[in-house]
Design a protein that fits this description.
The structure holds two protein chains of two kinds. By secondary structure, chain A is an alpha/beta fold. Chain A has nine helices and twelve strands. The model of chain B has no long low-confidence stretch (mean pLDDT 91). Classes of the chains: A alpha/beta, B alpha+beta.
Chain lengths: 308, 207
């Protein structure tokens, strides 16, 4: 004869009440409450579960992502998470996608580093994509609104500054450890290359560049400093294509993953060239760049698998 | 006019052996037993770099020891030479790393979201899905069912890699299917735990 499940539950409640030396009704209430909490927590977790988290920093970046998502027919529904709000875009291609906004830069308590770690755990996403705006490096080849994609990110704050060699014109020199350069997710490189080709074929005004993106805490508005940073870099097998401020945060989040299979990529639109003249127009160019980055990412997420 | 002699055309193509394999091969011939230990300690939310330690024994004493960063090529050579990890937990970690390397190209080909979805659903419905600790990890992952025409191809590739691991374990453990199944189940659980941040969620209090 099968044991009665209700009787089994009652027996366990009686045993627990005896162990706690408490009335059975108190134990019943505690168990019910725990069960309801667990169910609510599970519902919350399912509501924000995602494969990909899109991260923006400024209000403009967030708004442009929302606009791009809606234009392409995706949602942008706010969904409360334990550590902040998420915005559910729904299924983009074969990926469940949510977006979130972090503070600008990587250092504030709700900046990219902390929020990306929390978001990765809360949503169980396997990829974090940092979108938004960045500065370009080469005004002769690059234009406002072009998209830069990180094959790697160079953390230019991760450096040793020592006295210069005798006879040097400079008073100091900068030495970078090999760990300053972090390789981004290979899963996405190929898809962004396909997007770059697609843009060329379609005659899209924006271009897509893949290469090394500088990331650091400084808001650079001086061509002299930008040039100094670029000149201080060791020789690399990929071109330096731009720079930004939040990448290092996402990378902190991804460092606990396999270095050969990192779960992040930085995709940004060029809003300026980190110099005084281009920064003067930043109010106009920021939205153009943010939109370009959002569109590029949403298109890539919709690309079908290779060779299928 | 072609050159009279040309090493690229006139000699057979042979891949040079990994220097570690050359050394280990020589040391193995002088020893009776070889043991592998993989170390990958958790450091908070992160992992320290994975290293492999190989010990060569003769007459019950250690003859040689060597260590290096974990590489699939080296591990595959050790597997071919029938070298077991020091204990079952370590064997589980070893196969979790092997599965991760094997699944990587599939994730790149099909994309993260699609691969995640197919992988989780296939394991849930597969012969190991109800067995601990895999069942527990699968229960902690919130995945939806994949839709689309490539599902069959993706499933086939995932199945193939799991089968390769299963066969390798059977061969390594002299057809002890119970041990092989236990290790494979644990390795898949470990792979999924890391991919979907299950332990990390718990550590950060997300349940």
């Amino acid at each position: 004869m099968q044991p009665d499940p209700d009787e089994i539950v009652e027996q366990r409640l009686r045993t627990e009440a005896e162990r706690r030396k408490a009335p059975i009704e108190v134990v019943r209430y505690a168990v019910l409450r725990r069960g309801l909490d667990a169910a609510q927590s599970d519902r919350q977790a399912r509501a924000v579960a995602a494969d990909v988290v899109l991260v923006t920093a400024t209000l403009t970046e967030h708004q442009e992502l929302e606009r791009a998502a809606k234009e392409l027919g995706f949602g942008f529904t706010a969904q409360p998470g334990r550590a902040g709000d998420y915005y559910r875009l729904g299924d983009v291609g074969t990926n469940r996608v949510v977006a979130m906004r972090v503070s600008m830069g990587a250092f504030s308590p709700d900046g990219a580093a902390a929020r990306c770690i929390q978001a990765r755990a809360e949503t169980q996403a396997t990829t974090i994509i940092l979108i938004g705006t960045a500065f370009g490096i080469d005004q002769a080849r690059q234009n406002i609104g072009d998209v830069i994609v990180s094959e790697s990110v160079f953390l230019y704050d991760d450096r040793r500054v020592v006295d210069a060699d005798k006879g040097s014109a400079s008073k100091y020199k900068v030495v970078y450890p090999s760990t300053a350069r972090k390789v981004a997710s290979g899963t996405w490189h190929d898809r962004f290359r396909r997007l770059a080709e697609q843009y060329l074929q379609d005659g899209t005004a924006e271009k897509v560049y893949l290469g090394v993106i500088l990331s650091g805490g400084a808001r650079i508005e001086s061509a002299a400093y930008r040039i100094e940073v670029v000149d201080s870099l060791p020789p690399m097998d990929q071109p330096v294509i731009g720079g930004e401020m939040e990448g290092m945060g996402a990378i902190s989040a991804a460092l606990s993953t396999d270095p050969y299979d990192p779960g992040w990529v930085v995709v940004k639109g060029i809003a300026d060239f980190a110099d005084a003249p281009s920064r003067l127009k930043i109010e106009e160019t920021r939205a153009v760049a943010a939109r370009a980055s959002a569109m590029a990412v949403l298109r890539v997420l919709q690309l079908p698998p290779k060779n299928v | 006019m072609p050159s009279a002699t040309n090493k690229y055309f006139d000699t057979p193509a042979e891949a040079p052996e990994h220097p570690k394999i050359r050394a280990w091969s020589a040391w193995k011939s002088g020893s009776q037993r070889v043991e592998l230990e993989i170390r990958r300690p958790r450091e908070g939310l992160a992992f320290a770099p994975t290293r492999m330690f190989v010990t060569f024994y003769a007459d019950g004493t250690v003859q040689r020891q060597d260590d290096t960063e974990w590489e699939l090529e080296l591990d595959t050579w050790l597997l071919k030479e029938h070298v077991k990890a020091r204990d079952e937990a370590n064997e589980t970690l070893r196969f979790a790393l092997r599965l991760k390397a094997a699944f990587r190209p599939i994730a790149i080909r099909f994309g993260d979201g699609y691969f995640n979805s197919v992988m989780v659903h296939q394991l849930r419905g597969g012969p190991l899905g109800g067995i601990a600790p895999l069942a527990e990890v699968l229960g902690a992952i919130h995945e939806y069912e994949a839709a689309g025409g490539s599902k069959y191809d993706c499933e086939q590739l995932i199945d193939f890699e799991i089968t390769v691991a299963a066969k390798a374990l059977l061969s390594l453990y002299d057809d002890d299917r119970t041990a092989a199944e236990r290790i494979l189940t644990g390795a898949l659980a470990q792979y999924l735990d890391e991919r979907f941040h299950v332990t990390e969620r718990r550590q950060l209090g997300f349940g």
